[in-house]
């Protein structure tokens, strides 16, 4: 029998928090008034997370584990969880308890009012570095400037989606998954629940700068072609500028002033233009890389093991 609510919890090296999040999520879901399942997606953790999850699944019939063969990334883990979820409503929440599980009850109330997507909007972020806050703010603003799909700012992946939204997301074939953008893209009736983002319960962030940059570039390139158009604008502007300068140089030559002045200035111009060209090539390369990824058509993830399902894979 399928559950009413499915909670999807991506976990990567979360041995310090997993027991506590299982406890808090179970307590909250017991109050939800419906049958529920907790789907933990172990994203190739190198610590004791899978052992702990296996043990949790053996003692709690609500808990299930999908374990990847290696680390495939947060967004992929969420996608896998949605594919395994059977509930009428699917809730995605981080394992680290930064998003308070108690907010799920408010989300369920909104869902019962008839909303198909209820996302958590962060009013405040506690215990995160100033650098993270500033970059996050900057990123959401830039993203909105560049994309045509309206992706709400300061909203993470903590959200509830209805079965029909989950099915729509499952039908999207792309490999570079920027889940929160895809949720905006599919549409449906959406609303927000505001909450204060807590500190991590334990452990440290699994999003080092490298992953943050990749995440930001995934978000922008999967939802916008504008970076490609920038080269047209920059190119146009520079050509116009060069044309005007060319006329100036010709006039100087014709009317007797020497045009041969300054090796430095020609060097500066040449270096500048080369830099611009390389940046533009890089942007094009980024998109080509993405096309290549999609063209290979590899599966999004490989499941090594499952626990708690009727037909477990070992
Ligand atoms: N996570 C994951 N795979 C990764 C990185 C992170 O499944 O490669 C999970 C992680 O276990 C957590 C969630 O994604 O449940 C959010 O990660 P984290 O809390 O480290 O990010 P932050 O809150 O600092 O942005
Ligand atoms: Mg976190």
From TrEMBL:
The chain crosses the membrane at residues 232-255, 267-288. Coiled coil: none annotated. It is a multi-pass membrane protein. Residues 6-167 form the Glycosyltransferase 2-like domain. GO terms for molecular function: glycosyltransferase activity. It is found in: Cell membrane. InterPro entries: Glyco_trans_2-like, Glycosyltransferase_2, Nucleotide-diphossugar_trans. Belongs to the glycosyltransferase 2 family. GtrB subfamily. This is Dolichol-phosphate mannosyltransferase. It comes from Papillibacter cinnamivorans DSM 12816.
């Amino acid at each position: 029998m399928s559950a009413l609510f499915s909670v999807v919890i991506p976990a990567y090296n979360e041995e310090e928090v997993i027991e506590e999040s299982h406890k808090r999520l179970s307590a909250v879901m017991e109050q939800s008034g419906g049958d529920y399942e907790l789907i933990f997606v172990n994203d190739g953790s190198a610590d004791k997370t899978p052992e702990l999850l296996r043990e949790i699944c053996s003692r709690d019939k609500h808990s299930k584990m999908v374990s990847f063969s290696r680390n495939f990334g947060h967004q992929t883990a969420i996608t896998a969880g949605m594919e395994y979820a059977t509930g009428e409503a699917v809730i995605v929440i981080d394992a680290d308890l930064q998003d308070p599980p108690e907010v799920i009850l408010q989300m369920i109330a909104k869902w019962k009012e008839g909303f198909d997507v209820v996302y958590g909007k962060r009013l405040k972020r506690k215990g995160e570095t100033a650098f993270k806050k500033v970059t996050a703010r900057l990123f959401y603003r830039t993203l909105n400037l560049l994309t045509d799909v309206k992706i709400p700012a300061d909203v993470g992946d903590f959200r509830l989606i209805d079965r029909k939204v989950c099915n729509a997301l499952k039908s999207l074939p792309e490999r570079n998954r920027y889940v929160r953008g895809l949720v905006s893209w599919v549409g449906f009736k959406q609303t927000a629940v505001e909450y204060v983002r807590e500190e991590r319960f334990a452990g440290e962030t699994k999003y080092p700068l490298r992953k943050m940059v990749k995440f930001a570039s995934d978000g922008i390139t999967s939802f916008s072609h504008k970076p490609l158009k920038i080269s047209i604008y920059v190119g146009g502007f520079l050509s116009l500028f060069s044309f005007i300068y060319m006329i100036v140089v010709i006039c100087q030559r014709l009317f007797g002033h020497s045009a041969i002045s300054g090796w430095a200035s020609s060097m500066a111009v040449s270096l500048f233009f080369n830099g611009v060209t390389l940046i533009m090539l890089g942007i094009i390369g980024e998109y080509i890389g993405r096309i290549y990824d999609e063209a290979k058509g590899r599966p999004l993830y490989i499941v090594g093991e499952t626990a708690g399902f009727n037909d477990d894979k070992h």
